Amino acid sequence: MSSESNGNGVESSYVKIPQIKFTKLFINGEFVESLSGKTFETIDPRTGEVIAKISEGDKEDIDLAVKAARQAFDHGPWPRLPGSERRKIMLKFADLIDENVEEIAALDTIDGGKLYSFGKIVEIPSVAENLRYYAGAADKIHGATLKMSRELQAYTLCEPIGVVGHIIPWNFPSQMFVMKVGPALAAGCTMVVKPAEQTPLSALYYAHLAKLAGLPDGVLNVVTGYGRTAGAAISSHMDIDKVSFTGSTEVGRLVMQAAALSNLKPVSLELGGKSPFIVFDDVDVDQIASLALQATFFNKGEICVAGSRVFVQEGIYDKFLIKLVEKAKAWVVGDPFDPNVHQGPQVDKNQYERILKFIEIGKKEGATLLTGGKLSNRKGYYIEPTIFTDVSDDMTIAKEEIFGPVMSVLKFKSVEEVIERANATKYGLAAGIMTNDLNIANRVSRSIRAGVIWINCYIAFDKDLPYGGYKMSGFGRDMGMESLNMYLQVKSVATPIYNSPWL
Amino acid sequence: MATRRISSHISRSLPLLSRGVKQFYRGRGIHRYSTSPALEDPIKPPVSLQYDKLLINGQFVNSASGKTFPTLDPRTGEVIANVAEGDAEDINRAVSAARKAFDEGPWPKMTAYERQKIMLRFADLVEKYIDEIAALETWDNGKPYEQSAQIEVPMFVRIFRYYAGWTDKIHGLTIPADGPHHVQTLHEPIGVAGQIIPWNFPLLMYAWKVAPALACGNTVVLKTAEQTPLSALLVSKLLHEAGLPEGVMNVVSGFGPTAGVALCSHMDVDKLAFTGSTDTGKMVLELAAKSNLKPVTLELGGKSPFIVCKDADVDKAVELAHFALFFNQGQCCCAGSRTYVHENVYDEFIEKAKARALKRSVGDPFKAGMEQGPQIDEKQFEKILKYIRSGTESGATLETGGDRFGTKGYYIQPTVFSDVKDDMLIAQDEIFGPVQTVLKFKDLDEVIRRANNSRYGLAAGVFTQNLDTANTLMRALRAGTVWINCYDTFDAAIPFGGYKMSGIGREKGEYSLKNYLQVKAVVTPLKNPAWL
Fold first, then answer.
1. In this model, does residue A6 exceed pLDDT 70?
2. What's the gap in Å between the CA of A40 and the closest CA on chain B?
3. What is the reported pLDDT for B23?
4. I need a surface site. Which of A205, A331, A344, B206 has the fewest CB within 10 A?
5. How far is A252 from chain B (nearest CA, A)?
6. What are phi and psi of B67, to 5 degrees?
């Protein structure tokens, strides 16, 4: 049974909840009300209660933000600064994040139900690290000089693509923010960020820090609001040069459609997944069972790379299940401010109910509920870590992205078989391969159609590790030097040369 | 004025930081741009000397022999300090510290991100102490203080920040081999790097060499030039303050034939990087060959052409050609020391080049507005005067200058020769001083041939607005850098190095990482891969 650590208390007894300082849209270097004057409520998923009322941006606010970004791109200093100068401001921005780690971590915890300790120790510092990584990339954006087959001198220039629209999700409000904003800033772009309506707080805080760091007005604009209004306005805007979206596959399709119907802006999409986590007979069962738990339940299962299909080879299948259950029972659900808690509440009522529906479907379709599946008896959107066995590949819970703490365990016999089954999905975001057999590891990593393969590790992200999907998990790559390409245009320049001693 | 003009050539790639300098001059009430030809008493440098020992394993220590050598103020020839004199035994100690720091860590085992943070902290510290560091550099070297403080130290900082950014972006490749194999390359630090740097840009040469070596995770033994040992000791101290583990950066002051030779022939040094004269470079390469075959990069001498084409705006060409040669007292390996001028503009060019040289402000480098300080030492001073005599004797026309400036220290008058022929010594040898040699040419093919007719190939300047001419020359000149309508435009990201006997390898930019990395190919068979 999952233990509960903090009663039903609304105020956390662990950490002082910061006062909410920023609730308005950030446009052209200023916090402003939305033009309509409307606001929306952002909810604390621990209680379902309102944290703050946030300005609700709509189409006309997006227009204003794009205008500011357009001005900053077309006439402002940002794209014209040497990379080393952009770096300086980005490094300062990173330092300011480091100085405010606790406050930002607390914002993501009250807004998204995310673990506070993890935020403070890992997640928010990694936002600063990421920003430093891209700060260091700002002066290393190289074009090439080219080998022409006749008397031509030619080269490529990598130029910033222009005004970028970023639409980011609620599961990692901070990391998604920097994953998009970092490379776009390094490239010299200006941008409009729309954070998820569930988690607008940290993005506004970052906007404030960016201004303090000296980012020129209009370079970074944050418009809080809903997808169908503000998000749609970004996707279909005629003056946005590129849209980068992370979220569900359904919405990704809408973004791409809107881009197609408007100005054919290039789109990068980082969408859903149903990633296989494949455990071979030769592993240390105890160790890999722990990893499987992390792979599926990390961040309440609200992670697009969740290893939500756990394939276990038949030789260790039974042993593995026993370990999984044992560990799942020791997995603590509770107030995310409590340092002993492994899992906080789901982000909102919608998600909460959606997950519960999937659990019901799992039972109805004949999977065996091994553990969990019950609501926690506390207020807020808590769900126990849930494990299904006897799952077959055609069941809904093995096909759809649940985005919650629900693991499906599937049995397999041979390498050939598991490769085929792992690939039998519309998604292709990530995969885990657990084995010490080098040949199996190499073979399976080449055979799985997915953007990230983790061998004997999982959710091992790094600044320098590009990340994105095959198939309907999206296209384009975030992170690493790869992601710069999403924010750059390539211009080829050629001119005749005469009397060159060589070509 | 002149200083501003110099800066403006460079400012395309350099933010100017003049804060400290202005404060310094304001405090002392010295008038800017004095034109008095007579040298007054030398200005007391606004810095006190703190470090004069060897830096080995994180500690300042005396040399094993206890010996010291004097480092001189080139304004007066007087002793600034007696500095610990490293010899073979000290090199051994330094290498063994560097070896241990490499083999046992923590430096190469640290995450790249941690290395980056130390390098960024170091850059911040140097920026903080920019006035002292620049003053020490000028005191030891004689270069104008404004140049140290506004151009060189900021560039030093820029280079360290640039390579800090590389630490976590050193990528190998995965490689499609012909057959069922998984192949990847790992780019690993090469080990203990031995670095020998010259006296003309002590700090910048330090940055060019040390920053990429550290970014890649190597450990370093640096031998500074005996003329200018001071600034490297100061900044290395700051590097340790920034958190560099002991043994990673070792600095041995001393002479080439003793400490330098010991480093080059050391069996436990994995890589050498040398900047200096072509003659010494040959010895470095030879010693590496005779010892453990360590790879060597060399950045050596030059006799770089600066080509003024017939369409040139003469005033601008004169100014740039003047800067290309006289910058840093002419003590630049890439100095534009063969000024080729098209016959259509030759006469006007000579007249204006002469006027410009006459206007050059020479004097105490601590004085505001000085474009030119003293040469580095007596040896260089005498060598330059000898070349000037040789120019006159071989029939070149001495337009202006030709002698020492003042009576004390190693100052030389800005000197211009016209009617120079390709076979004269002053058109062939690297003079390394404020001596401009102007040669006349008729057509492009001719000047390409003549410009390339040199054993050197370090740099070239092209002055034209004609795109076709620029493109033709850019490709035809056998040199590691071609500056078109600019000169000495350096940046951390722009690679620099020589063709022919100007050296081997490239420093700065992404290219420099290669000097400090080993490439390991890792191959393993694939069983039943989905594809290759």
1. no
2. 40
3. 41
4. A331
5. 29
6. -75, 155
Q: What is the DSSP letter of B381?
A: H
Closest-CA residue in chain B for A502? Answer: B475
Interface test with A, best of B528, B531, B532 (most A CBs within 10 A): B528
CA nearest to A465 within chain B: B169
Using the CB atoms, write b or e for B232-248: b if 16+ within 10 Å: bbbbbbbbbebebbbbb
Q: What is the pLDDT of residue B2?
A: 36
The DSSP line for A412-430 is E--HHHHHHHHH-SS--SE
CA distance B423 to chain A (A): 25
With an 8 Å Cβ cutoff, is A494 touching chain B? no
pLDDT per residue over B55-97, tens digit each?
999 999 999 999 999 999 999 999 999 999 999 999 999 999 9
pLDDT (average), residues B512-525:
94
Q: What is the mean pLDDT of residues B344-351?
A: 98
Q: Residue written as tokens 């038949």?
A: A314
Nearest to A443 among B15, B468, B527 (CB): B527
3-state DSSP assignment of residue A34 = coil
Mean pLDDT (chain B, rounded): 92
Q: What angle do CA B162, B166, B171 make, to 5 degrees?
A: 155
Percent of chain B at pLDDT > 70 equals 92
pLDDT tens digits for range B126-161: 999 999 999 999 999 999 999 999 999 999 999 999
DSSP letter string over A449-460?
--SEEEES-SS-
Cβ-based burial of B104 (10 A; exposed 0-12, middle 13-18, buried ≥19): exposed
Instruction: State pTM to two decimals.
Output: 0.90
**Which of A131-140, A477-486, B171-180, B216-225 shows the lowest mean pLDDT across its residues?**
B171-180
Summarised one tens digit per residue, pLDDT across range B471-499 is 999 999 999 999 999 999 999 999 999 99
- Report yes or no: A414 at the B interface, CB cutoff 8 Å: no
Cβ <8 Å between A136 and B471: no
- For chain B positions 11-30, those within 8 Å of chain A (CB to CB) are 13, 15
pLDDT of amino acid A373: 85
Residue B11 predicted with pLDDT over 90: no
Which residues of B are less than 8 Å from A463 in CB distance?
113, 168
Q: Residues near B253 by Cβ (< 8 Å), separated by ≥ 6?
A: B54, B69, B83, B84, B85, B86, B223, B224, B226, B229, B232, B233, B259
Q: A-chain residues within 8 Å CB-CB of B182?
A: 442, 446
> Which A residues in the span 136-175 are in contact with B, Cβ-Cβ below 8 Å?
136-140, 142, 153
Beta-bridge partners for A194: A167
Largest CA distance in chain B: 84
Size of interface A-B (CB pairs under 8 A): 93
How far is the alpha carbon of A450 from chain B, nearest alpha carbon, in Å? Answer: 13
Measured between beta carbons, which residues in chain B are less than 8 angstroms from residue A438?
A: 524
* Rounded CA separation B423/B524 (Å): 59
Which two three-digit tokens encode residue A1?
Answer: 């049974």
Task: Answer whether A354's CB lies under 8 Å from A347's CB.
Answer: no
Tell me the DSSP string of B300-315: -----EEEE-TT--HH
DSSP-assigned letters across all residues of A21-32: ---SEEETTEEE
Pairing between β-strand B181-189 and β-strand B174-176 as defined by DSSP bridges: antiparallel
Closest residue by Cα to residue B344 from B323, B320, B316, B313: B313
Residue A270 annotated among the catalytic residues of the structure: yes
Query: In chain A, count of helices (H) and strands (E)?
Result: 15, 19
pLDDT of residue A13: 67
**Rounded distance between C-alpha atoms, residue A308 and residue A294, angstroms:** 11
